[in-house]
Please model this.
Amino acid sequence: MSTKDILKNSFLESLAASDVTPQEIFLVLFITTVLALYIFCIYRVLTRKTFYNKSFNITLAALALITAGVILTIQSSIVVSLGMVGALSIVRFRTAIKDPMDLVFLFWSISIGIICGARLYVIAVIVSIFVTVLLFVLDKMPVAKVPKILVVNADSMEEEDRIMEVVERFAGYYRVKSRSLSAQQLDMVVELRVKEEKELVQGINELEGVHAVSLLAHDGEVTF
Model:
């Protein structure tokens, strides 16, 4: 037999489907389902203080199973894998990710599907444990206090100096975000950090020419 025949036979053997027993398929899908439910629960716990998207959470669990099935199919035959790569290459996902944390869970779910589909269950469990510990530790770690937003409605620009004097007395950090002056009133928005919130609001409200004072909390970016 010539070298050409040997290479031809080895290539044809590689095209043949490998044996994936039903027991292995059920085992892969079962372990993937358990880890997918685990990701589902972790996502629900970490997003309890923010906007929770149940549809996205269900998508995470289903995505792990689908990815595991794709990996099993690719392992069964090189012909099927090439066809699947070509089919998936034309798919375009245009849904915007609003929260960066959602992107972490999305890659986590896909990675679990790939690892379980390759039947490396120990790696999938260890990765899930380490990712969970990292997320909870970083979530509990204090970074900086989120500033408050002070909104003041007054008569004119003449009241701004007196308003800022009260702000300087109670706030360790402050920055004027906007000033809006119309024919009859001044609207100010100030970002600040303050401990004595009640005293600050009361002090500004007692100023002559001030009509309304609001102190708002927000979950946006932290200013250092």
The chain has two domains: 3-140, 148-216. Strands lie at 148-154, 171-181, 186-194, 210-216.
